[in-house]
Prior knowledge:
The structure holds 2 protein chains of 2 kinds.
Chain A: E1 5-8, H1 12-24, E2 31-34, H2 37-45, E3 55-58, H3 67-76, E4 85-89, H4 94-102, E5 107-110, H5 115-132
Parallel strand pairs in A: 1-2, 1-3, 3-4, 4-5
Helix pairs in contact in A: 1-5, 2-3
Chain B: H1 5-8, H2 29-39, E1 45-48, H3 54-63, E2 68-72, H4 78-83, E3 88-91, H5 97-106, H6 112-123, E4 127-132, E5 137-140, H7 143-147, E6 161-163, H8 175-180, E7 185-192, E8 201-211, E9 217-226, H9 228-250, E10 254-259, E11 264-267, H10 270-275, H11 279-282, H12 293-309, E12 319-324, E13 330-342, E14 345-354, H13 359-378, E15 382-387, E16 392-395, H14 397-402, H15 413-423, H16 427-440, E17 444-450, E18 456-466, E19 469-479, H17 481-539, H18 546-577, E20 583-586, H19 587-601, E21 607-611, E22 616-619, H20 621-638, E23 645-654, E24 657-664, H21 696-706, E25 711-715, E26 721-726
Parallel strand pairs in B: 1-2, 2-3, 21-23
Antiparallel strand pairs in B: 4-5, 4-9, 6-7, 7-8, 8-9, 10-11, 10-14, 12-13, 13-14, 15-16, 15-19, 17-18, 18-19, 20-22, 23-24, 24-26, 25-26
Amino acid sequence: MSGYILLVEDNPDDELLALRAFKKAGLGTEVKVARDGAEALAFLHGPDENRLPGLVLLDLKLPKIDGLEVLKRIRAEPRTKLIPVVILTTSREEQDVVEGYSRGANSYIRKPVSFPEFVEAAGRIGVYWLELNEQIRR
Amino acid sequence: MSEPIAYLFAPPRTPPARGGVVAVAVAGLADTEAYLAKVGPGGSFVLDVGASFEPHLDVLARLSLGRVVVVLPDATRTREAFRLGAVDVLVGAEVEAEGAFDRAYVGRGGSRRAQLFEMAWEASPTGLVVLDGETQTATVNPSAAGGRGYGYLMPGVTPTLRDEAGNILPIDQFPLVRGGRGERIEDMRIILDTPGAAEGRHLAVTARPLLDGLGVTRGGVVASRDITDRVLQERHGLGLELQAESFAKCTPDVLLTIDQAGTILGVNPAVYDMLGYEPSQLVGRPLQTIIPDDLRERHVAAFSRYLATSKKTMSWSRSALPALHQVGHLVPVEASFGEYTIAGKRFFTGTLRDATDARRTESRRAMESSRLTALVTSLQAGILVENELGRVVLTNQAFVDALCPEASVGSDGEEIHTKLAERTTDPSHFLARIAAMLAARELVTNEVVELRDGAVFERDYVPIVVDDEYRGHLWSYVDVTDRRRSEATIMALNGELETRAVSLDAVNRELEAFSYSVSHDLRAPLRSIHGFAAALAEDYSATIDAEGRQYLDRIMAAAARMGLLIDDLIELSRISRSKLVRAPVDLTAMAHSITSDLLASDPSRKVDLRIAEGLVAEGDASLLRSLLENLLGNSFKYSRNVELAIIELFAEARDGETVFVVRDNGAGFDMAHAGRLFSAFERLHSKSDFEGTGIGLASAHRVVSKHGGRIFADARPGHGATFSFTLPGVGKVGPSL
């Protein structure tokens, strides 16, 4: 288990539900939250560089800088370009899915309405990206 | 008559016999009266009365007797006898009564006239024949006797005579025979065949009956005149005249005659081809009519100089000159002149030969040009053709009607343009353009000309160049008023359509934005509702009783259901908005993929899947997938209470089109409600029996409609449902059919 999860989410309800879902899924991982795109980029590209997240969960509809733009800048920056990014959003517009993958998203997951499903999804995300997936060691 | 009778007298060549004619010589008045009664009126009378004849003549005058010859003893009273009515006077001493009678009978015998007759008889070139019925003799003068070739009169010869047309005359029509019968003949023309000569002799015959003293016809006198020379001459002369006329008619050269005043007296028809005039248009007009303006003065001067001095200023043979055509252009001619005088008046002849190199080409061109003229005349475009001098040589009805009623062949082009300019919306611009085009002599097409009455024309200017030489130009005006109006209408409609398309586009974008926010923003609160209800149920289960727990379940179920509704609505809107991309789609493979997903979602189900092989449709893969998902999903759902569900997909041909069929043996439905089947949010089953949003079939319907096809259902409660649809453009389906 390496790193923590950076959750980029502007909806407080979704934030709370996500945190609960991670807890329910039994993921002991630390979760940090950025509430808009600008905050997320400040966090990733800011002075506290040593602690980069092991996974970014990124919503697309965000205030200030939207999710796709955040993704583009993560991939443009050498230090962050290899961090796994999973888009976690309500949209399943084909356009968003295509854009997300083409800008380098590692996965695209639609937030389910049903909480149990959400919990299941959260669990799977954590297990896959943080435990099963081979990370690049620094 | 004063000369002595004896001197004048000469006895007639053939003294006639006395019989039938009464003549009496008497000595006394009583005898005269006695004989008068015997002779009757009209008879001839010889009065031998010696010196005292007056009483006798009185009697004769009283009785209106005819000819009286007075015989006197001597010549002393001759004059008196004539004054009293005697037709002749004989001097009795020298004349026997017998001879006096004979002379009286011959008529004027014994007189100077008789002698003159005798001389004329002998000398006349006219053949004379006296046919005396009384004596049955023919007396013939020398001409008639053959001296001048009247051989037909010779005894013992039957000549061949013809009428003027050459038909042989029967003998009873011979002039001598008719004359002998006493017929009167006036100038009868006959031809006497002459052996060995090509042409017989032409004779003009006249005959008069011969009367005796009592007025009874006794033969006749026939006079025949030889007119052969005249006939031949006439014939020859007429030939020459006809020949000249024929030449004048057929020659392509123009032949004309003028008098010394320069007036055209005659001209042949060739002048029409060469100069455009009918002969009648030129006769009576001065020669200057066909002489170009710049040569007229010189012509007049040269002509008067010649009349005065007979000095020529140019060659009269084959001079190259220009002639002026009726429509104004110049025709090069080769002119030759001649002169003749009749009755002191001088006349001049001229021949004009077309000097254009290829006269043949010219005539062929004329033929082509007449075809072109016919073509131009019938064109709908208004046509005006001018020659190099700006004169109108051709126009048509369309031009006259639509543009310029003043236009006609021969009119001045500039005038026409000026008149036309006045009818345009911008006359000065119009004239400026005309001038510019005429100066440039280059093709100009589709120039717009607007008339003040609203008509709009497209004008072409076409210079006419023949053998590198500018020969005029053609103006063509095509009425585009209607077309322009249509164009304007079309442009307006296009503009409107564009505006609508733009607003439609805006609506579509709005709709997209709406769907997007529906999928994002409506779902977010649902997640909260569901999520926190779940949190309550889990974290506070100790403090919530069974009823409370049930309420929380209902909240979560409702939220989940609304999530499905929103998803289906988004799908429906996606179908409506998406662009149809047609390609061959393997429906069989697609159906297998869908049903395997369905089976995976409920592995406990036993389903007999009968999917036909080789089903291929032409359509949008993503939309057709949505269609099959809905139909097969429905079959799967509504057959779940059947022990062995049978779900089929196949195609069949109906009325020449391919119909795809999805059939199940599930719950089915009542066809009474089938009308609402394909509307959104309509359901035929209660939620408690079968879950669903009521949007699936609406989506299916939209997919089929979008492909231009039809979808219809057939079902019975408890006996399954059948959905059939068509997809136009499906040319071929698999071999399983």
